[in-house]
């Protein structure tokens, strides 16, 4: 089951990034610190980052205890690419679940 979820999440992420490349690059140029923390959280959290590390990293990129934080990278990404539909098991849903529980 986990292998299937990871494969699906990877495929969705790759397709999204392929289609969103120029817009993601523009956001990264305009928001280098948030982008750096986003990259760090995407690596630290799934690889066993502790709650002490994961919670601030998730909050910095916008995954808060009540949902995406307005004006954050997470809110921008959701509004730009996901709209109101967040697929169960997607990377975004997993990060948001962690942000709401850590």
Automatic annotation (TrEMBL):
Q: Does the keyword Transmembrane helix apply?
A: yes
Could you say which residues form the signal peptide? none
Query: What's the protein's topology in the membrane?
Result: Multi-pass membrane protein
Note the InterPro entries from the entry: IFI6/IFI27-like, IFI6/IFI27-like_sf
Q: Where in the cell is it found?
A: Membrane
Classification via Pfam families: Ifi-6-16
- Which superkingdom? Eukaryota
Which GO cellular component does the record give, naming just one?
membrane
Name the keywords, alphabetized.
Membrane, Transmembrane, Transmembrane helix
Q: What is its main location?
A: membrane
Query: Is Transport found in the keyword set?
Result: no
Kindly list the residue ranges recorded as spanning the membrane: 36-58, 79-99
Q: Which family does it belong to?
A: Belongs to the IFI6/IFI27 family.
What is the recorded name of this protein?
A: Uncharacterized protein
What is the source species? Answer: Endocarpon pusillum (strain Z07020 / HMAS-L-300199)
């Amino acid at each position: 089951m986990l292998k299937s979820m990871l494969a699906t999440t990877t495929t969705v992420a790759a397709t999204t990034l392929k289609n969103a490349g120029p817009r993601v690059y523009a956001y990264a140029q305009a928001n280098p610190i948030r982008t750096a923390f986003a990259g760090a959280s995407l690596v630290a959290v799934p690889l066993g980052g502790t709650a002490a590390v994961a919670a601030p990293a998730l909050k910095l990129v916008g995954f808060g205890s009540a949902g995406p934080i307005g004006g954050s990278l997470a809110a921008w990404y959701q509004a730009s690419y996901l709209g109101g539909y967040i697929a169960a098991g997607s990377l975004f849903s997993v990060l948001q679940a962690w942000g709401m529980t850590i």
